[in-house]
Amino acid sequence: MNNIAQSIIDAHGGIEQWRKFSKVRAYLTQRGALWALKGQDGVLEKTTVTVATDTQWASHSPFGTIAARSEFTGYRVALMDGAGQVLQERNEPRASFDGHALETPWDALQLAFFAGCAMWTYLNTPFVLAWDGVECEDVGEWMEHGEQWRKVRVHYADSLEVFSKAQAIYVDAENLVRRLDYDVQIAGNTAGAHYVSDYVTVSGIRFPTRRRIYPRMPDGHPMAEPLVVSIDLDHITLL
Length: 239
Fold this sequence. Notes:
Elements: H1 3-11, H2 15-18, E1 23-31, H3 33-37, E2 46-52, E3 58-61, E4 69-72, E5 76-80, E6 86-91, H4 108-124, E7 135-144, E8 147-155, E9 166-171, E10 177-184, E11 190-202, E12 205-215, E13 229-238
Antiparallel strand pairs: 1-2, 1-13, 2-3, 4-5, 5-6, 7-8, 8-9, 9-10, 10-11, 11-12, 12-13
């Protein structure tokens, strides 16, 4: 990783500390306009999310009343019962979103894919910058909330399943992540501005516990409404 990635990762606890663990688990509360729009309101409003730190894997448990848990690996998504038996599964799940617009409803497996992809990326940021094939560069200053941030352009490796390969991270004077930008290609290339705050330190790693996602305008600034997704994390544990 380059010096930019190193400085951001160091501010969040450092790669050596991060690599002592293989999973992150947290209690998750999610709200916002997206879930009803997709016909999945309340399914994952309150659940526990677990993501791997050394491979692309995520799980939500319970998965509403539909399943005991979900399993996301990028190339496959599945819903499992309490005994670990597969209830539903889909290989190459991204292809199921072909032709989708923002308003297109999701089935349960599509929700599992979106939620797994999202939370894996969020909880592994910024440490994913150290992964092979992930590149980043400083593209200049950005003023927001009366503060001067740095905008860092990120390009994710082809091997990683993410919302879009080209994204951006904004960091403050302490090199803490304050915002993420991406285009959700599986929802009609919807542009999002994703704000993070309320950091806590867990086992030497700094995590934001509050996330708020708004539509992003062409000039890079967010719209005040609607609140697309809200995410609150509690009881974060490194395993």
